[in-house]
Every structure is written in C-alpha cells, then in structure tokens.
Amino acid sequence: TISTVICDIADKARLILDCVSGRKHSVTTIVIMENFDSELTVQAQQKGIEVLSLKELE
C-alpha cells in the first residue's frame, strides 16, 4: 500500500484527493514541492490526509 505521495505541483495533489474521495485508501500524507493554498489542506484533512510542503520535511 502507498501511504505517502510526493507531488511537484498542487494540481496533482488535488487529482489524488479527487481519486480517493469516497473510497477506502491508504494515503496518509501528501508532500508538495511548490506552494499550495490552505483550501487544499482543508480538503485533505476532510479525507484524513496530511499535506506537507517539501520545506517542512527538510
């Protein structure tokens, strides 16, 4: 199972969130390389997923 996904842009993270919506999933964390807005964070939290910036991991 995949628990962490790394995306270069926020649009790809949104695509992942759309794909897991309403489904059982193993994704717990999405790391995004570029800046993203708080709306994306809220959408992810509603699905039980944490969104982090790459800078937060450094």
What are the main properties of this structure?
single chain; 58 residues; alpha/beta; 3-stranded parallel sheet; 3 helices; 41% helix
Task: Explain how this protein is built.
By secondary structure, this protein is an alpha/beta fold. Helices cover 41% and strands 21% of the residues. The protein is built from three helices and three strands. A three-stranded parallel beta sheet has the order 1-2-3. Strand 2, helix 2 (38-46) and strand 3 form a beta-alpha-beta unit. The radius of gyration is 10 Å and the shape is globular. The model has no long low-confidence stretch (mean pLDDT 95).
Give me the side-by-side strand order of the main sheet.
1-2-3
> DSSP strand (E) fraction?
15-25%
SSE string: EHEHEH
| Regions with little confidence, pLDDT below 50 for 5+ residues | none
Could you estimate the helical fraction of the residues in percent? 40-55%
Number of helices: 3
Anisotropy-based shape: globular
Largest sheet: 3 strands, parallel
Q: What's the pLDDT, averaged over the residues?
A: 95
Q: Number of folding domains?
A: 1
Structure classification: alpha/beta
The total strand number stands at 3
Distance between the termini: 24 Å
Radius of gyration: 10 Å
